[in-house]
Amino acid sequence: MNTVRCRLCGALLQVEHGQQSICCDRCMTVNSVPPMQAQENGMQYDQPYIFASYAHKDNDTVLPILHAMQKDGFRVWYDSGIEVGTEWPAYIEKMVLGCTVFIVFLSDNAIESANCRKEINLAADCGKKVLVLQMDEQIDYKEYGMRLQLNTYQKLYVCRFAERKKLLAALHEASILHSCKTVGVSKPTAEPIAPVQQDSDRVKALVKRAFLFLEDGEREKADAYCEQALDLDPEYAPAYVVKTMLALGYTDIRDFENKCTEKLSTHPAFSKALRFADDLYRTTLRHMEQQSNYNRAIALMQKGDMMSLCEAIVEFQSLEDTYADAADLRAQCQQKLDALTEKAKRRAEQENAEKPAVCVEVADDGDETADEFIALEPVLDKKDADGLYRVNVPLGEDTQAKNTVQYTSGKNLEEIRRRFSKQQGIIAAGDCHTVAVKANRTVYAVGWKVSHTEEVQKWKHIISVACGHSHTVGLCADGTVLNTESGGNGRDVTGKWNNIIALACTFSGTVGLRKDGTVVCAEYNKKLIRNTKKWANITSIAASWGRIIGLQADGHVVAVSKDRQDPACAVEKWKNITAVAAGKKFTAGLQSDGRVIVTGELLFENDSKQSVLLPWENIVAIAAGSLHLVALRADGTVVAAGNELNGRCNVQNWTDIVAVACGGDHTVGVKADGTVIATGENDHGQCNVSDQKLF
């Protein structure tokens, strides 16, 4: 016989062996009976067991999991709701101290629970093996100081398992729980210990040989031994460190630890090493990661150009809590960046003063609708060697000179474009909202659907964003995707995609580019999904309304549209393209020579399938809105063409820009100092960005 207390009135109740629930005669409350079959007279289990810590507010979700674990042979002890009495804290302490593994069902309720926090701290203080079962995708740690402690433990996301049996299968695979499994209740596991130990020793020996082969420069043998080790134990973290060194070209572990300048958090093999490492080894890997980020920031600082200094400032800011000199180094980078910015301004002013204004040819066709579009029927000259027309577009009296002055003559345009391209994903715009990624990888949003902007501002670990008509998607550092819509119109991709490196949005759907060059699509229109599955070797994507554009590694472009005769899909003859953008009725491509090619209805209506070259030069990035196109020059200035209504094209005075994005009726840009500027329609507050500084 055992005794338990009623969870409502505290009365002592006599429980017979095997009884799972009991009704209190005093208050008629039904009480669940905690599983205590393996304990007698208040003593600890005589075999290894699991202590489960959870918030009683989560009973409805946690208790079914615990019952299923017991049924599957796990020895689990938990407090099923007995109120705290004079003897109960001491008893809880005894059970925590006696357990082999401590699991915590992590939720916002658990963080709020003082009892859960005490149990977690006790388990940490006495060095228990801890497994975190996270119930929610995002946890609000508040001010209780639990984030650092819990993030060092092995974690399993319960919220990502659609079926309980899959969760149980994952728990059975967790090596940390093996000693707490039985067949029945008290019988030890039938799995022999010796072969497991032999396999473990063999795995360690194979990886040790792999490290030695690596030191000798025998990369193929090192890789082969690594594969043998992973065949025996796919979760052996040191093997993935060898894989990372092989991929990055390091042969000495000390050089890798101290000299690496790569972003290790984005490397797939190193991410697996972090995922499968035990607590002690994970601490070592985190140190490697931080040291690599520090080395990278130093290298960027020494490089000294504007884009490198911007990246270095962001890196040093994230390292200030770890490296004592990070704050000083960040300040030095900012000083250098300010000096370069001022120098660039003076040089541009001098060049503008010395060089005569060169105006583009203006077509005077007398069209009264010219106020809506900059040029509906531009002057077409002779075809060039590529068989494409050159077009002279009137861009307005105030901008003619700037649009034709050569700022970057003699510079390596490809290198400049490569540096600028890293910044483009940090800002995006929808029809009536603007979203941007901050240096700490959180998201800032303004505009339509306040509930959505508040939602995305809770996102974490975001590296780039994209916007559709009214939805927003964010790319996480681990290659997964978050979005603000669930269900309709094919937008629900949260937790379903992985290995994503870039995102784009149609009017009502989402497009993702995977590391292997394939494209995934969540869209209401099945034709878009079906056709994009055939694409391969894609390096960049763009989308708008019912059209998706893909840039191939060889510089050619592919396109698919829900409309069979879409003139904006006439891109099959394009070549040497380095970036693409898609508007409502047009597609733009950035050529390797810094010029922009357009097809569709941006600047004209007649013969809209004919591709034309705009009179812009030294372009390093492009962005498209519904009815306008914006281009970023290598010197940080911006030009625009298309529908000028509401001031969406008023970018002629912008300077020191490193990233641009277009919404339906507005344009936004990020300056080199991290501030955000905007122009155009602001009826929903989508241009209220002046108070923001991203880095």
Describe the overall structure.
The protein is an alpha+beta fold and 695 residues long. The chain contains 17 helices and 35 strands. Strand 1 and strand 2 (12-15) form a beta hairpin. Helix 7 (193-215) packs antiparallel against helix 8 (219-232), helix 11 runs antiparallel to helix 12 (279-303) and helix 13 (306-318) runs antiparallel to helix 14 (326-354). It starts with a strand and ends in a 15-residue tail after the last strand. The model is unreliable at 36-44, 81-86, 183-199 and 355-411 (pLDDT under 50).
Give the tally of β-strands: 35
Class inferred from helices and paired strands: alpha+beta
Count the helices. How many?
A: 17
The radius of gyration computed from the alpha-carbon positions, rounded to a whole number of angstroms, is 30 Å
Q: Kindly, what is the distance between the CA atoms of the first and last residues, rounded to a whole number of angstroms?
A: 65 Å
The helicity comes to 25-40%
For the sheet with most strands, the description reads: 6 strands, mixed
Mean pLDDT over the residues:
76
Tell me the overall shape.
Answer: globular
Strand content: 15-25%
Strand order of the largest sheet: 12-13-29-28-27-26
- The parts where pLDDT drops under 50 for at least 5 residues are 36-44, 81-86, 183-199, 355-411
